[in-house]
Amino acid sequence: MIELENIRFAYKKNELVLDNFNFKIKKNERLGLIGANGSGKTTVFKIIMGLLKPQHGKVIIFNKYRESKEDFIEVRERIGYLFQDSDNQLFCPTVEEDIAFGPLNLGKNKEEALEIVTETLELVGMTGFEKRVTYNLSQGEKKIISFAAVLAMEPELLLLDEPFASLDENTVKRMVNILNNIEQAYIIVSHNKEFLNNVVNKSYYI
Would the N or C end of the chain have less CB density within 10 A of its end CB? Predict the structure, then answer.
């Protein structure tokens, strides 16, 4: 599904983050991406989504070489990206509007989008939250709703940046349960090795 070949990336000339980095994920795989702060984990996700362009190397996604901005339009429709900070992902007044936003932009009509909202909230155990004001949710609730908004777009692959961060133990368990009940392949960046081991097939150290 994704193959990164000999990736080199630096934010500034003397700030090399990735050097000769190679990575791949196949269909149905569930991988953990582990490394120290500043090791380049989030940078890898941004390169996959076309938000950053490497100075060297190849980005191959869904069997196509991706380089230009246009190349990544399809990528962003087929890959769901859960940001580390939920406040960067949720921007509509209500939960219903946030989750419906993606499907509507993918061409679903209002009735179809609302049906997806209902189904997705049921999947993540948040039925009844449709009219809740997003701003007033707890951090744990925001994380789950952000994930629901990503799932509502029916992506083929998920990039999950610290999905367990700042969550209480019960919410982490809920997130683990959701991950174990979805069909998509995914890559998870996390420092929580205990819970990571419950949701991935193998881990990749960066």
Answer: C
**Residues of the chain where predicted confidence (pLDDT) is lower than 70:** none
What single-letter amino acid sits at 167?
A: L
C-beta atoms surrounding 124 within 10 Å: 21
Q: Helices 169-179 & 139-151, crossing angle to 10 degrees?
A: 10
Q: What is the predicted pLDDT for the residue at 104?
A: 92
Number of domains making up the chain:
1
In a domain, 123, yes or no: yes
Rg (CA), the chain: 17
Which of 5, 106, 8, 90 has the alpha carbon at shortest distance from 52? Answer: 8
Q: pTM for the complete prediction?
A: 0.89
Residue type present at position 24:
K
- For the beta carbon of residue 87, count every other beta carbon within 10 angstroms: 12
Q: Tell me, what CATH number does 143's domain have?
A: 3.40.50.300
